[in-house]
Records
---
Amino acid sequence: MSARSDAGSPMTAVAVSQATAVHPDAPVASPPDVSGGDALPLIDAAPDGELNAQRDAPVGGQAVLEGVMMRGVANWAVAVRKPSAEQLSEGELSPEEAALGDVEVTTYPLDSAMKRHRLLRLPIIRGVVALGGSMVIGFRALEVSANAQLPPEESKDGEEAEKQDIPKGVWAGTVVVALALAIVLFFLIPVGLTSLIKHQLGSSFLFWLVEGVVRTSLFLGYMLLLSRVKDLRRVFEYHGAEHKTISCFEAGLPLTPANAKRFSRLHPRCGTSFLLVVMIVAIFVFAPIGLPAWYWLMATRILGVPIIAGISFELIKFAGRNRSRGWVRAIMWPGLKLQLLTTREPDLEQLEVAIAALDAVLALETPGELSAADLVGVEVVA
C-alpha cells in the first residue's frame, strides 16, 4: 500500500473484539465487495482442507514482536500481547518465550502521498512510493512492539517509573543499515563475484544469467538460514496469523480465531513472494546493460533497485487481483512455497492478536463502502 505514517501520537486504543464463530460446515454468505469491482468467488479449499480467499481487499499487514501490524486505506494499527506482571518481574523475555499479558492495540492515521500527487500514481513509480511508505510504517510498528515488551524502570525511591522507549535514532540507523546490507548482499556481491569470471564467460548473456543465478541462490540461502533461527520462530507464527486473518476477512467470514485458523498461512501478496519476484525481475532489468566497466556495473546495480522494486510491485499486485486464474497460480507457486520458510502455524492466541489489529482498522474505515476516489493510490501488500 502506498501510504505514510504521520508518526504522531496514537489516535486511539482499541480493545480486542470477538465475533460469532461460523461452524466449519456452515454455508458462507456472500460478503460485500471490498475491492471496488465485481465480487469474486469467495473461498477455494485446498486438498488438505485449508481455505484460500479468492478476492483482493485493501488491507495488508506485517508481523512484529509478539504482535501484528495491520493497515487499511486511511489507518494502521499495531496489536501487541504484552508480558504479564509475573513475566516482567522475572526480567526481560527471551525471543522464544510467549508473552502472556493483555493485548494492547494502538491506531495511527495514514496520509497517502499518491492521493495528493497524480505523478506518484503512475505504474512503477507508485510501487517505489508504496514500498517506501511500507518500510517507514513497518519499522515504526516494530518500534511500537519492541517498546511494549520493555519492563518499566524503577525510580530511586523504589516506585515504578515510566519506561524508557528505544531511541528513534536507533531505529533510523537500523533502517539505513538494513537497506545498505540488502543492496550489498543481493546486488553488489553477485555482480562482483560474476565479474571475477567475466572473461571466461565470454558473453553478456552468460554474464547476466550467471549473476542472476548467484543473486537468487544467495537470496534463497539467506531465507533458509532465517527460517532456522529459533529466535524468529514466534515472529514467523505471527506472520502466519497475519495472513490467515487477512484471508478470513477477504473471504467474508466473521473475524474469529476459529474461522481464521482454517485458512492457509500463505498469501499471494506476501512480501516474501515479492522479494523472490525482485530477484527474478533483476535478471531481465540488468540484461540490456551488457558488460560495461566494473564501476558502471556496480552503479547500475544500485540505481536499478528502485526500477526493479517498482516492476516487481506491479507484478505482485497483478497476481493478487488475478489469483483465481490457473496460469497466475502456476506463476505464483514458487513464491507461495517460499513462504513456508517465513511463516509458521499460529495458535488461537496469536490469531486473536492479529484479529485485534485488523478490527482496530475496520473500526475506523469500512472497505466495502469505499468509492473509487477513496481507493486512489491504495496499493497493499500483505
Note: Residues 139 and 171 are 7 Å apart (CA to CA).
---
Amino acid sequence: MKTLILATFLFFSHLVNAQDIIIIVNEKNPLSEITPVKLAHYYFKENRQWPGGMPVRFFDQKDETEARRIFLEKILKKTSREVELFWIGQKLYTGNRAPLQLGSDSMMATMVARFPGAVGYVSAAFTGAPGVKKIELDKE
C-alpha cells in the first residue's frame, strides 16, 4: 500500500512540474505578461510587432524537449506534426520560415538576450539569465 501511495505521489508531482513552462523575453521588452492567444499569434507570425513597434523574433525549442511538448500542447494546442505542416505551407506560399529551434534552456536564454524583440520559452527549472526576463502567462 505504501508503495502504491508513493508511486502515485511521484507520478502526480512529476505531472505538476512538467506542466509549467516559463515565457522569457529580452530585458528591453516592456511587457510583464502575455496571454496564450497573443503568444501563439507571435509564434505563427500573425502579429510581427510588439506594442510600441519593436519587431518580434520568436525562438522555439527542439522537438525532443519537454518544454516544447508542453508549449505545443498548452499554448498552441497543436501537435508537432500540425506545426511542421503549417510551416512547410508558409515557406512554400509566403516565404515565412519557422522560428529557429534551440536545444536547451541556456541556448534559449542566450538567443533571447541577444535580440531586443526576442521571445521564447524555457522549462520550469529555469532560474534566470542575464539579458532576459520572465513574463507572466496570463490566463486571459
Note: Residues 21-137 form a domain with the D-Maltodextrin-Binding Protein; domain 2 fold (CATH 3.40.190.10).
